Amino acid sequence: MTAIAETFEPESNGRRFTINWALLSCILCAAVMAMLAIAAPFSGQLELYISRQDQLLVSYITFAFAGVTPVVFSWRRAISNGQLPARNGAEPRYEHVSGWSAILLAVIVVIIAALVWWAAGSNAANRKIHAEWGTWVVVGLSAAFVLVAAAPVLPRVARSLGLESSLATVAALFNKPAEWVGQALSAVDGVLVFAVANAAGTNRKHVFLRYAILASVIATCATLGYFWPAPWAFVPIAWGFLVAFSVSRRWAWIEQDRELAMLNPTLSQAHIRVGFAQNLRDEALLVFLSMFLLVPLALRQAQLLANDAHVDLFSIPNAADVHDLGMWISFYGTELAKAVPFVDWAEVYHVEGDAPIQANHPLALHAVFATRVLIDLVFLAALLQAISAASRDAQQRDLFYRKKAIRRLDPFTEPDAFRLLVRRDPNGEWERNTERFDEFPAYDQNRLVELSASRDERIRRAADFLLERDGVDHDPHHRLSKKAAESSVQPDDISILLDEVENTGPARNIYQLALTRRRLVPRRAMLDVRRRIVRMISVTDDPIQRTERTERLLEALIGEHREPYAQARRVALDALAPDTGINLRIRQAIEQVAAHDGAQAMRNRASEILRLHPETA
Length: 617
Known about the structure:
Layout: H1 2-7, E1 8-9, E2 18-19, H2 21-39, H3 43-46, H4 52-80, H5 99-121, H6 131-150, H7 154-160, H8 164-199, H9 207-227, H10 234-263, H11 281-289, H12 291-308, E3 314-315, H13 325-338, H14 345-348, E4 358-359, H15 362-402, H16 414-419, E5 422-424, E6 430-432, H17 434-439, H18 445-451, H19 457-469, H20 476-484, H21 491-503, H22 510-520, H23 527-538, H24 546-557, H25 566-576, H26 584-596, H27 600-612
Antiparallel strand pairs: 1-2, 3-4, 5-6
Helix pairs in contact: 2-4, 2-9, 4-8, 5-8, 5-15, 8-10, 9-10, 9-12, 10-11, 10-12, 11-15, 12-13, 18-19, 18-20, 20-21, 20-22, 22-23, 23-25, 24-25, 25-27, 26-27
């Protein structure tokens, strides 16, 4: 029932429902993968009906189809939802990965690869780190620390010496390739998060459906990685690694969104890249646990491939069975125990592993080193992130409940906290859960108005009770946005409240006005009141709210919550025009309007604004 409810979504344009093809493809392809995994152990029995070669050919094609299809549909769905750009240069832009950071990381990887190559190619007598090398390492690291510490001072030194313009020219020359690298990596990261991870079910609302799809994909990759012959078995194993990394990246994006939301409660939705519909901490840890199975499978397949090529990759006792997965798991565990991440206790105390498998060939050493790096840099990072997230949650709860230093809860702990504030009375109606409700601290008023329109009735009633308790209902801004969430609201109802807002004085709650407009976007009859709201936002001259005003006007002009009618977009465009030459974000938005807006008049006006307001330094 959960899958059916999510697959057939209600529409707001009059039709009864629409099919969520991305979810449907995920479910069907996950089922196909599961059938492949179930059939793989019975290939011997199936040879009575179809040859082994034909079985493999069919399974190869089927796995490729089942893996790629949901990725394509999820990619298209992300574009339609405004999470990925439809074309190069459109919003949202690929710019979240720093090109210079990526280049620095690449340089470090190259240095490590060179050291590994030298160590693997040298004999035991020459494989030594000489004393003078150690001296140069200390000098180099000291210089790096000094350079990083002095970096904030360098621009001031350049200005005092009159070198600022020259350095700016040189920096612009080198920034171009760095920006290209950053955009390319941002694009890859975006596809991993919104296409590959979603194809594994990570964006499903219901936990059962999310785990069912994800577990089906990972289990199939592991099963086929065991039963398929080399080198084709590396394909599902590599796909399992890719899915695991994509899930971890999506979880990292969610954690960054959490930090942004807590730092700025009125943050524009345009800056929230994934949102808080799912907390993927447990899913990310689950896929990383699967690496303890996928890595031994990869090592086993590498040995089988080496045997076919008559290469001595790993040293295995004659009595041992190379197909024994348990032996490979014990070998991998022994290697991990020798190098507990960032400790290397075995080297210090000269402790050697006693597994039946030994890595002697240079390629085997490279493989073991790569798996250790994988655990050190990926798995351990995920574990530390989970621990830090739990610690941050505990600190935030203490700041909210005991110290009352913050006025809202974390997006993932908030729903559970609100559900505990109400309970059913003997008549089945929601009432205050007296003890918990009375002790609940004063909550952020803007957030309460948002929650008063929640789809969860329990959360909605708790928010209403808190609004009554804290006396927020007297503010016409809050009553306006709350009224806009009602399905039966009429344009006259909104107009009356807008009149009341204007009569209270010049002060404006821009956040609540923008929230009202967003709630009214799907309703055609509300065009005039939405245009009026955009105008009220645009004429706000409070310098403290200038940034908020810009954000909400941009929200009405482009992006997921933009105004569907050109008249309202034109109001936002004209209001933003004076800052086009000095605000890069506004200029980029107006450039997008000039190139892609659906109304010719809007494109012409945006082009005119760009000519009248040239970009300044």
